[in-house]
């Protein structure tokens, strides 16, 4: 007797087909914050908007001051001056880099907020005129 051809069972399927069947990438993309609509998002507080640049600026200032202290120690102490002379300027430059990055980030966020307000205004005008 001939047996009819059977469909491949789960254990016989290739790994690619298992991945395609069990993949949830479509549903996880909708959950991400990037896919949220600009029009439906609730207004955020100033702290929520400027939190990251403020943290970067404050960490940069702290590292810059630490580098200043280490560099000045190389002038006052007589032992291990090579270690202080090498690590002090490294902390100075790292702190200055973080400070400048945070200070440049703030006007970028302000510009994006203004653009978002303009686009929300234009969207409300469109909905007013086209939904009549």
TrEMBL record:
The chain crosses the membrane at residues 54-79, 91-109. Residues 7-16 have a biased composition (Basic and acidic residues). Pfam families: PIRT. It is a multi-pass membrane protein. GO terms for cellular component: plasma membrane. This is PIRT protein. Residues 19-28 have a biased composition (Polar residues). One of its GO terms (molecular function) is transmembrane transporter binding. Keywords: Membrane, Transmembrane, Transmembrane helix. It is found in: Membrane. Residues 1-28 are annotated as: Disordered. It comes from Erithacus rubecula (European robin). The lineage of its organism: Eukaryota, Metazoa, Chordata, Craniata, Vertebrata.
